[in-house]
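Exercise: predict the fold of this chain.
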Amino acid sequence: MSTSAIALMVLALVTLWGGLARSIVHLRNHPDESE
């Protein structure tokens, strides 16, 4: 794999897992109370 491909893969993984972690933290701090 080329260097640019590895950099793009790392960027995509950080974006994906970072967004997932951020959403988990947000839901933990602000639980969705529909009732």
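Check your answer against the key: The helical segments are 3-29.
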